TrEMBL record:
Pfam families the UniProt entry points to: Retrotran_gag_2
Origin: domain of life: Eukaryota
Organism: Laccaria amethystina LaAM-08-1
Record's protein name: Uncharacterized protein
Amino acid sequence: MLQLCRVYDYTQGLVEKPNSLMDPQGLRNWSKNDNYAKHLLTSNISTTKMMNLRQPGTSFECWKQLIALYENKTHDTIITFTCNLHQLCAVDGDDIEVFTLPLVFHSESSWSPGIPPD
């Protein structure tokens, strides 16, 4: 949609904002296109997601906020789980079942669709 409306480059920060003294008409055109791109982005997200956005100045800033908002965080959970696993050390006399119970609970509660629990 952004490419079809010819504003995709604005959302990627690829179109430089003209200097208002050197090119006032270029700045007006840039602002109009950038605002249009921002409108397209914000009018196609849910109201609840919209509440999580700070007031972006440009469509590029809006795009970066949306990426951060929708970014998949599953890899962070897996890394944390792996680090916790490597830090576990049982000592003589520990009940292994009781010792590993929090780890099993964590693995079952943190799995994501596409990565089935064992």
